[in-house]
Amino acid sequence: MTRKLVQVELARGRGIAGEKVVHGLFTDREADLARLGADGARAAKGLSQALRFTGEAERTAEIPLGAKGRTLTLVGLGNSADFTVERANAFVEQAIAAARSSKATSLGLVLPEHDQFFGEAAAERVARRLALADYRFDLFLASPPRGSRVSRISDTRLKAATLAVPAAWRRAWESGVALGSAIAEGVALARDLGNTPPNQATPEWIARQARGHARRWGAAIRVLAEPELKRRKMGGILAVGGGSANPPRLVRIDLGRRSSCCLLYTSPSPRDGLLSRMPS
Length: 280
Known about the structure:
Elements: E1 7-10, E2 20-25, H1 37-51, E3 60-64, E4 71-76, H2 85-101, E5 106-110, H3 120-131, H4 149-155, E6 160-164, H5 170-195, H6 203-217, E7 220-224, H7 226-231, H8 235-241, E8 249-254, E9 260-266, E10 274-279
Parallel strand pairs: 1-6, 2-4, 2-5, 5-6
Antiparallel strand pairs: 3-4, 7-8, 8-9, 9-10
């Protein structure tokens, strides 16, 4: 239903891809400019010297990077001892905003070596936010005429993000990025289902979506329609569903070895539905 989520991946070797490249710097730590590649490191060093930029909090500096319209933004993060998880999240948000303001379709983000970015949990958090950076619900959005202003805006949406992390972190970050991207896909699906108006997202429509995703996941699924709900004396669901021309459904998705199952109760309106996740 939505456009494709932002594709998040790790940089390979020296240098980093991205029309907009963002690098965070601390005042009390030497910057690891090598992850920018030779050209990027030279540009960052020259910019820092010219502006006497030493990583002061909330200070930024920007310079062209090469001849293809790429730009490099240096972001001051202040003293590393004061760098909290909230500031780490704000840095990622600032990088996304920088990419949007420059109309870049790809972002290269160099993450400083700090405890707030260390480990799989940090990788999952960053990847999830980046993957959802350009989420929008466009199911009912008419296709704009080619070449129109709206079409041009659509063409410059963020599509890819590349992350440069210390080499020693790579294994944990590969796992965390994969997990974060998967969670983002689930979040986008939940948003899609919630954003679809109830005149389309009827209980049977929700059940069809569930069947499709169960097949994709290789999961077992069972949909209980009105006769089975009556047989099981599920009066609460039937009472709510009785107020609509669209009878309710109850969906069970069993994920098997992944040791969990999902129960989805859909009433006439998605806002009245219940989604729960329980151990099997």
